Amino acid sequence: MKQSEKYDRRFSSGYLESWPAWKKARVRKILSSLGLKSGEQRGLDFGCGRGEFTRIIKDELPDWRIDGADVSGVAVSIAHNNVPDCRFFVLNVESSDKGQYDFIFSHHVLEHVEDIDSTISQIAEMCKPGALMLHILPSGGKGSLENLICEWRSDGFDVNRGCRMFFEHAEHHRRLTAEQLVSKFELVGCRAVSLRYANKVFGSIEWITTSSVELISKFTGIRALRSRNYVLPVLLLRSILILLFAARFPVTRYSHYRSRYKKRLLYRVSFLLCVLMLPFAMVPDFVVKLLSSIEFRMLKGRVGSEMYLVLRKIKQ
What we know:
Strand content: 15-25%
CATH class of the largest domain: Alpha Beta
Shape: globular
Strand order of the largest sheet: 3-2-1-4-5-9-8
Structural class: alpha/beta
Number of helices: 11
Number of domains: 2
Largest sheet: 7 strands, mixed
Order of helices and strands: HHEHEHEEHEHEEHEHHHHE
Oligomer: single chain
CATH superfamily of the largest domain: Vaccinia Virus protein VP39
Radius of gyration: 20 Å
Distance between the termini: 39 Å
C-alpha cells in the first residue's frame, strides 16, 4: 500500500485529531522568537495533517501567504475546511513550488517519511535563498528517559530501521540525532541556526502518561532487560507512570471528548464522569505540565528525546 493511501485511511478514521494546548502554545512561542518579518512572504506547513499548526503559523504571520501540504488527500481536505484562509495541496515528488518559500515548518513529519534524503532535498528546493526552517521531531541523542530505557534493553534500538526505539509506532522509520539531521541538510545547502530539546525526563513522563496503558506496559516491560539490576527501577517507573496516567485520565479524556463530542448515551455518560472527576485530576495534571515546561526552559544544550531544529537555506 502506498504511503498516501495508508495515511488517507488513518486520517479518515480520526488520526491526529488534536494536539494538546501546551504544545501549540510552545510552538507559537518559538515561532514568535524567530524574528520572521511581516509582509508579503510565503510560509509552508510541510506535512500539515489536519492544519492545526497551519492555523498557528497563520495567526503568528497574518500578512504572510501560508500554505499547507501533505501526502494524504484526506488530510488536505480536512485542513482546508479547518483553515479556509490558507492554501493546501497534496505533496508529491513533483510538487512544483520550488524556491517559493521564506519559511518552512514541520512537526513530527521527518520520522514518518520513507526516503529522508529525497524529502530533505525537496524541502531545500522549496526554500528561497535565506529562508528559515523549523523542524520538530524525535531525537536519537543520549540523555533522555526513553534513551536510558532503550540502553537497558537488548531490543532497545532497531538498528535496521534507523535506530528506531522499541516502543515507537511502526510508521516511524528512524530516530536521527541532531548531528545526523544537520549533516543531511548541509548537503543540500542549509545551515543550522539553533537547536533546542524537550523531553529529558518530565517531558517524557508528560506525553507517556497521556498515551495508553498498553504503551506504558510496553515501555516498562522487563523481559528484554539486560540485567536483573534494572528490574526494580523499571517496575518502579511503571508504577509511577500508571498512577499518573490514572490521576490525569479525566483531564485527558475531557479534552478528547470535547473535540469529538457525540450524542450517544455512552459518550454523554463518560463525558459527565470526566467532568465530575476533573477537580481531582487538575492538580496532578498541572504539576506534570509545569515540570515539563520548566524542564524545556532549562534544557538548552542538554539532550532530550524531542528536538527543535532551526535551519537557514544558505544564499547561493
